[in-house]
Amino acid sequence: MLKIEDLHINIEGKEIVKGINLEIASGEIHALMGPNGSGKSTLAQALMGHPTYEITKGKVTFNGKNLLKMNPSERSLAGLFLSFQYPSEVLGVNIANFLRLVYNKRVKKTLYPAAFRKLLKEKMEILDMKEEFMDRYLNEGFSGGEKKRMEILQMLILKPKIAILDETDSGLDIDALKIVSKGVTLLNKTAKTGVLLITHYTRLLNHIKPDKVHVMRNGKIVKSGGHELANELEKKGYTAFEE
Amino acid sequence: MTNQKQKININANYKTKYGFNVAENYVYKTEKGLNEEVVKKISEMKDEPKWMRDFRLRAYKIFKEKPMPTWGGDLSKIDFDNIFYYLKPTDNQKRDWEDVPIEMKETFEKLGIPQAERQHLAGVKAQFDSEVIYGSLLKELEDEGIIFLGTDEALKKYPEIFEEYFGKLVPPSDNKFSALNSAVWSGGSFVYIPKGAHVKRPLQAYFRINAQNMGQFERTLIIADEGSYASYVEGCSAPIYSADSLHSAVVEVFVKKGARFKYTTIQNWSNDVYNLVTKRAKVEEDGVMEWVDGNLGSRLTQKYPSCYLVGERAHGEVLSIAYGGKGQHQDAGGKIFHISPNTTSSIISKSVSAFGGRTSYRGLIYVSPSAKNAKSRVECDALILDAESRSDTFPTMKIDESSANIEHEATVSKIGEEKLFYLMSRGLTETEAMSLIVSGFIEPIVKELPLEYAVELNRLIELEMEGSVG
Amino acid sequence: MLTKLLELVSGEISLEVLEDTQFVVDLSKKVDDVSLTLIFNKSGVTAEIICMYSLGVNESVVLTTSTIHKAPFTSCVTYIKGVLFDGGNSSYTGKIIIEKKAQQTNSYLNDNILVVGENTKNNSKPILEIEADDVKASHGATTGRVNEDQLYYLESRGLSEVESQNLIVEGFFESLLSKITDDKIKNKIRNKITNAKI
């Protein structure tokens, strides 16, 4: 589904990601773990098409198509979703209206406001979100935790083929973590969404069970394995995994 | 306090400071008023090169042609014909200590001004006799390659540098008062900081009571060469007696690539003085210029320190405090011109008006086309302490470039009843509470001042507050 | 609060505020030096000035608003929001004048410009002239370009660049539109500024 081959990424002339190879098939859950500065978020943002990241080498194929040739909007419509580590506040944009707008861009059967609000309410209930959030402005005045939940809500509405979650667990208390995990697991099971969990804590993996775990250091993946790898990390820490 | 008649003390330093080579006992005084002859005489007395004499004469012509500005305070009472434009120091009008007003003496006492300084400030003693200190500190600077002299002397010693920079940033044609200054300037400081020099102590801190900086028409020229760091402080928060009713100074600062310069002024001229100053800095690539401007005295001050950000990533800042008390009008602010890409600036102005005084903030932020990604923030806050006083804000933002990010905020208010009550409920008197609140109000700027100025300034505020309640 | 729609094309309008009123200003694109002055002679009155505009190529606005407070206990808030597309040119002067007798006045001004296009010019002069001390007066003015991060965030949800820009512009005006209490006037203004989009 998503195939990354020898990807190199620069920011302002400095190489951050130094050759990543990764394949995520439909329905698979991968965890990408690494210390701060290892290049995890850079990878996530570059996959979504952030304008300041420069791809200097490599290939990314998404559903058979060349992902790198698409702009962020096209990547989203193609089925890629990124839950941002720091979601932007967009003042004055009503959440329900916004989500209906982007939902209708990718479905054959578009929904009128009333019907959409019903759908939105359903998804919000899964995430234990109060209905009045629907009419707030996009991320305006939201706490860190509320912003993360809003990202996951968007994910549930947009039903992507591949979802990248960039440090979604940071700043969440245990209850919020459980709810977010519930949403992700649900999507993975029912829609066969492939998931890339980016985190540096193993805590999240107790709630979302990954099929594969990768350790990233200094811009490269230094080891890949199954869930046991997460346990090893927990015991030994990142320094045990040199390049 | 002693009641002595003080003799004028002529010191050998006068020769170098005032830049003339005539015998000591020759007394020259220009007649009152200004005309071409006076300008020529001034240049002659100073034994200046021809180019400077011609510069003065051209400036005088411009001064005559320009009309008086009408947009600021009331300048109508300035009588140009009733001013001495050049006085040899021996003739500076001095007075007896007994003639010094009681309030002034009391202020000195309360502010803790050292004895010797009091007489000088009060206009009784002509010069602060600090030759010993002065000499050894100058030597320190010399060793680091720093040039720090009176402007008159610098013209003689470093003519090439002078010609290269003098009048280039503030030409005579700039405004009527810069034209006046250009015609009759005398005194001021010339500072050159060599490449890469980092000057730890602020310059001028040692020469706080320097007669040069109390001249009517001083002209200061500062060049901070590439990569240098330095700062300059002038003025005094204690009230200064001046026989002169017009102070029209010009300050030009050149901040070269990667250099940082901070220029701090605290003025507290007596209430009959018109203080009209043009201060301008040109900031090159990666350079930083900081103006810290404290206006406490004078009858009318019109001063808008400005920065021309001509190099990429240049940064300009103006921090301004103004106190407008009885019979005063402080018309101050700052101007920033963003000429190159990625430049940033900030202006913070805090003003307090009381006892019928008036403060006005006047400022300009200009972003020229192609000055991409300019960022600027202006904050002006005013406190009006009673119903007789007044505050105005006249900011302008002229943005000719689409990528600019500019913010401006201004507030005017009085001291809140709630705040006063809260502080008094903790045992402070009303005066103490008010001065605490006013001090807190100006704190962001006061913390940028050298310690002794900060201490004096705070004490001064206390004094003023006492007057407001008593 | 009563809502009044003022269609300004050119010239000066000076109004005395006799009852609590919300003045919604509709500017024609070819605005040529328009000035609106509100005078507060009557104590206890509150007013609002709401003005929104969208400028495209060769379109310009020259606008002055003044609120002159002559009597005590009055309050006024002026909100100006403008969006500049390519070549837009706006010049705004906003004066708040509080005379000595007008104690206990609250007067505020907010002037925000969102730049979307290139080759734009804008001047802003928010002025305060305050002679009374027991007052609250403030103004804020901002000029800024559409935020790149916001654009990218919306695009990452499937919107095209133009759609994202339009959404941000709509959002920019939304908080002010929602203040208009008369629905008919609100919709009229909404249509006017929405149709200015590229």
UniProtKB/TrEMBL annotation, chain B:
Q: Which domain of life is it from?
A: Bacteria
> InterPro entries under this entry?
Fe-S_cluster_assembly_SufBD, SUF_FeS_clus_asmbl_SufB, SUF_FeS_clus_asmbl_SufBD_core, SUF_FeS_clus_asmbl_SufBD_sf, SufBD_N
Domain named SUF system FeS cluster assembly SufBD core is located at 207-441
GO biological process: any one?
A: iron-sulfur cluster assembly
Task: Tell me where in this chain the SUF system FeS cluster assembly SufBD N-terminal domain is found.
Answer: 48-204
Family per UniProt?
Belongs to the iron-sulfur cluster assembly SufBD family.
Q: What is this protein called?
A: Fe-S cluster assembly protein SufB
From TrEMBL, chain C:
Q: Where is the signal peptide?
A: none
Q: SUPFAM superfamilies of this UniProt entry?
A: Stabilizer of iron transporter SufD
User: Domain SUF system FeS cluster assembly SufBD core spans what residues?
Assistant: 24-172
Report the record's Gene Ontology biological process terms: iron-sulfur cluster assembly
Q: Which InterPro entries match?
A: Fe-S_cluster_assembly_SufBD, SUF_FeS_clus_asmbl_SufBD_core, SUF_FeS_clus_asmbl_SufBD_sf
What's the protein name?
SUF system FeS cluster assembly SufBD core domain-containing protein
| Organism of this sequence | candidate division WWE3 bacterium RIFCSPLOWO2_12_FULL_36_10
